[in-house]
Design a protein that fits this description.
The protein is α+β, with helices and mostly antiparallel strands and 171 residues long. It has three helices and six strands.
């Protein structure tokens, strides 16, 4: 593992957290028509299933860039734009993520149709940030678990990730 000077650890830690958060969807989008969920439990189940499928698609695409998995298909509006910008930034800086993240825990935060907000705990302990030479530049102080507040918005009966914000809390 490469040694990163203390002066560069904090910016790399922020970059690594930003890259992971962006790869798991960020941004916001305009409101849509109300969802046809019967109750909050049904809305939560749909949001959790959508977000789990998204994390799986991100992992599959990271493992095999030629995979047909399309994580971008789960995103909408600004979230989609943010993800594309993050991918471009990583490419221009010669860094990439390696390893799979998992969705360790999901809880319902709020249902305000057409939005469903969940709190997701991403276990990133198996992921690494690699430079262009495949040297591990993962900050040693990066937490293994990253809490996110994720908003999914219903659009014509399909939930799309429209916002994902890293939280200061631990999970």
């Amino acid at each position: 593992m490469a040694t990163v000077s203390p002066m560069h650890r904090r910016p790399l830690a922020l970059l690594a957290a930003a890259v992971l958060a962006a790869s798991l969807g960020t941004g916001c989008a305009p409101a849509a028509e109300p969802a046809a969920f019967e109750n909050d439990d049904e809305a939560f189940a749909a949001a959790e299933a959508t977000y789990r499928a998204y994390v799986d698609a991100v992992n599959e695409k990271q493992e095999d860039p030629d995979s047909t998995a399309d994580p971008l298909s789960f995103l909408s509006g600004h979230a989609l734009e943010s993800s594309i910008r993050s991918e471009q930034r990583m490419k221009s800086e010669g860094i990439r993520l390696s390893g799979a993240s998992t969705l360790a825990e999901v809880t319902l935060a709020e249902v305000d149709f057409p939005d469903v907000v969940i709190t997701a705990c991403i276990d990133a302990s198996a992921t690494r940030v690699l430079d262009a030479s495949d040297v591990d530049i993962t900050p040693i102080d990066r937490p293994d678990r990253l809490p996110l507040e994720v908003t999914l918005t219903d659009r014509a009966g399909t939930l799309f990730i429209t916002n994902s914000v890293a939280k200061e809390a631990t999970c």
